From TrEMBL:
UniProt domain ABC transporter: residue ranges: 2-238
Keyword Glycoprotein included in the entry's annotation: no
Keywords, in A-Z order: ATP-binding, Cell membrane, Ion transport, Iron, Iron transport, Membrane, Nucleotide-binding, Transport
Originating species: Candidatus Methylophosphatis roskildensis
Protein name: ABC transporter ATP-binding protein
InterPro entries listed in its UniProt record: AAA+_ATPase (IPR003593), ABC_SmlMolc_Importer (IPR050093), ABC_transporter-like_ATP-bd (IPR003439), ABC_transporter-like_CS (IPR017871), ABC_transpr_FbpC (IPR015853), Mo/tungstate-bd_C_term_dom (IPR008995), P-loop_NTPase (IPR027417), Transp-assoc_OB_typ2 (IPR013611)
Record-level Gene Ontology MF annotations: ABC-type ferric iron transporter activity; ATP binding; ATP hydrolysis activity
GO cellular component, one term: ATP-binding cassette (ABC) transporter complex
Lineage, broadest ranks: Bacteria, Pseudomonadati, Pseudomonadota, Betaproteobacteria, Nitrosomonadales
Length: 374
């Protein structure tokens, strides 16, 4: 666990009611996205930080202060932890105006300062002129802004966001994401965001922590996790479908490797910690699969060329998703996307033969996992 002065760190474990074996850290001014399938423990971890749930073992520290430590018997109540929490359903008081909802969280300020601070926070979250409206008179996006203003009203040491955009339409969601990105520059505190949306995590987060069944599987930048997963399990959880098995044949002095996969010899640009003759798993993100043009072959297409039959071809607006079955084996299928106009120009259709290149720089090696095609 890194030392993060002023930041948040949590090590938590328990057996009941759900298994939990998790670690995470978030520095001041950093946004950490917690991602993983439903039931993986993301919301439980937020509740642990806020003091709404206590793990059986571990510790929680924020800004150098112990909020929870099982060994030392420390467990501060929620009201003693400086936490701003935006719940999925916002949890606004329906009988109070937007301004009064925010005022409820300003009890730590002298009474004469609270009204001005509430108005300041509502203006910061783009609600100026709507202060007197009750939640039922506000749109979903506006209610989310009130909840955020109320969370910030506590002058929190950490801001927790539990899928805050899930109840709004897509246009409003994008607008709120932009506002959150801008807000980060104004509040220099750790921000922990729970989301199911990998694109949202990629766009907003400095770092991601991937959870499954209460366990931390990998932490790192979104780019690292989404292109260099530590295991085939992580690859599948972040929707990288091109996961295969193979054997590392050789590694040269520059660290480049040659991978035996089925009847192919695949060049790999970067080999980390694997010795020749090692059985392993490997993954290639779809953006590193390049379709060969039929009308004008190029020298670049000599890089790891693979031929197969198109097993699926699905236009999705401007992009077309393609699944290529190799060597006539539907168990060895490579998924990727191309612009729809490129698919049309190249006559891409189910049953057609196509060739692709697998970029050596995009191939990532992982420890072997049983039952993976290779």
């Amino acid at each position: 666990m890194p030392d993060l002065p002023g930041g948040l760190e949590i090590v938590a474990s328990q057996i009941q009611p759900i298994t939990l074996q998790a670690e995470l850290a978030c520095a001041p001014g950093e946004l950490l996205a917690l991602v993983g399938p439903s039931g993986s423990g993301k919301s439980t971890l937020l509740r642990c930080i806020a003091g709404l749930h206590s793990p059986q073992q571990g510790h929680i520290r924020c800004g150098g202060v112990n909020w929870y430590d099982a060994q030392q018997g420390i467990n501060l109540p929620p009201q003693s932890r400086r936490v701003g929490f935006v719940f999925q359903n916002y949890s606004l008081f329906p009988h109070l105006s937007a301004q009064d909802n925010v005022l409820c969280a300003l009890g730590h300020l002298p009474a004469q300062q609270r009204g001005a601070r509430a108005l300041e926070l509502l203006a910061m979250t783009h609600l100026k002129g709507l202060e007197a409206r009750k939640p039922a008179q506000l749109s979903g996006g506006q209610q989310q802004r009130v909840a955020l203003a109320r969370a910030l009203a506590r002058d929190p040491a950490v801001l927790l966001l539990d899928e805050p955009f899930s109840a709004v339409d897509q246009v409003t969601r994008r607008r709120l994401q932009v506002e959150l990105a801008r807000l980060r520059g104004e509040v220099k505190i750790p921000i922990v965001l729970v989301t199911h949306d990998l694109d949202e995590a990629r766009m907003l987060a400095d770092r991601m922590t991937l959870l499954s069944h209460g366990r931390t599987l990998q932490s790192g930048t979104p780019g690292d996790i989404l292109t260099r997963p530590v295991s085939a399990q992580v690859a599948r959880l972040v929707e990288l479908n091109n996961v295969f098995g193979g054997t590392l044949e050789s590694v040269d002095a520059q660290g480049r490797g040659l991978l035996c996969w089925r009847s192919h010899k695949i060049e790999v640009e970067r080999v980390d910690g694997f010795a020749p003759a090692t059985r392993l798993s490997w993954v290639i993100p779809p953006e590193n699969v390049i379709l060969h043009r039929r009308d004008r072959p190029s020298l670049g297409e000599r890089e790891n060329p693979i031929e197969g039959r198109i097993d699926d071809c699905l236009p999705l607006g401007d992009a077309t998703r393609i699944v290529l079955a190799l060597d006539g084996d539907v168990r060895a299928r490579i998924s990727f996307s191309v612009p729809t106009h490129v698919a049309r120009r190249n006559g891409i259709a189910v049953g057609e033969i196509a060739r692709v290149s697998l970029l050596a720089s995009g191939i990532h090696l992982m420890p072997a996992e049983p039952d993976i095609t290779g």
